[in-house]
């Protein structure tokens, strides 16, 4: 059983990460994408727990990375369209997160072998910190501009 490094937030049943209403940014498209990202994380951890599914975990990690790139692109596109004042800072945070994810994937390939318990703690951390921090800050701005 993996133990997420952040204690209560993001934990669903069995201590697995799961989306909850506290992550609502009130933009339907982005809430759906955030929910999917948590879903991938949960599936990855479940796959790690069943050793024969190690390949599945890596496949799911790549799927999460792809979904994350798409999600960040969509958020940034919306910000540019609406002249969101914190665009640059937000986009920089996205870039940093993607770099971390890329580095992690590279380390994993070099190390070989399956994903291990604890490997995903940093991913869960950044997903939470980013949604609850930077993403929350665009919520009111987008809503005021008619995006829901
Ligand atoms: Fe987001
Ligand atoms: Fe974001």
User: Which structural class best describes the helix and strand composition?
Assistant: mainly alpha
Number of strands: 0
- Name the shape in a single word: elongated
What does the average pLDDT come to? 87
Indicate the CATH topology.
Four Helix Bundle (Hemerythrin (Met), subunit A)
Radius of gyration, in Å, reads: 16 Å
Q: What's the CATH H-level superfamily name?
A: Hemerythrin-like
Q: What is the domain tally?
A: 1
CATH class wording: Mainly Alpha
The helix tally amounts to 4
- What kind of sheet is the major sheet? none
Helix content: 55-70%
SSE order, one letter for each helix or strand: HHHH
Distance between the termini: 37 Å
Bound molecules: fe (ii) ion
Q: Give the uncertain stretches in residue-range form.
A: 1-10
Portion of residues in beta strands equals under 5%
CATH 2nd-level architecture: Up-down Bundle
Commentary on this structure:
67% of the residues lie in helices and 0% in strands. The protein is mainly α and 148 residues long. The chain has one domain (29-144): Four Helix Bundle (Hemerythrin (Met), subunit A), CATH 1.20.120.50. The chain is elongated. The structure holds fe (ii) ion (FE2) (2 copies). The site of one fe (ii) ion (FE2) has 6 residues, from helix 1, helix 2 and helix 4.
Kindly list the characteristics that best describe this protein.
148 residues, mainly alpha, Four Helix Bundle (Hemerythrin (Met), subunit A), elongated, disordered N terminus, binds fe (ii) ion
In short:
The protein has a single domain (29-144), classed as Hemerythrin-like (Four Helix Bundle (Hemerythrin (Met), subunit A)), CATH 1.20.120.
């Amino acid at each position: 059983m993996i133990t997420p490094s952040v204690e209560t937030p993001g934990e669903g049943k069995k201590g697995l990460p799961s989306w909850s209403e506290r992550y609502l940014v009130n933009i339907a498209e982005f809430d759906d994408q955030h929910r999917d990202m948590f879903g991938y994380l949960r599936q990855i951890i479940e796959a790690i727990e069943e050793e024969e599914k190690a390949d599945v975990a890596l496949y799911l990690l790549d799927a999460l990375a792809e979904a994350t790139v798409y999600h960040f692109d969509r958020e940034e596109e919306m910000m540019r369209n609406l002249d969101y004042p914190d665009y640059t800072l937000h986009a920089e945070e996205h870039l940093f997160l993607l770099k971390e994810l890329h580095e992690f994937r590279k380390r994993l390939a070099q190390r070989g072998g399956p994903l291990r318990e604890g490997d995903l703690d940093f991913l869960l951390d950044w997903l939470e910190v980013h949604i609850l921090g930077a993403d929350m800050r665009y919520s009111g701005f987008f809503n005021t501009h008619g995006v829901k």
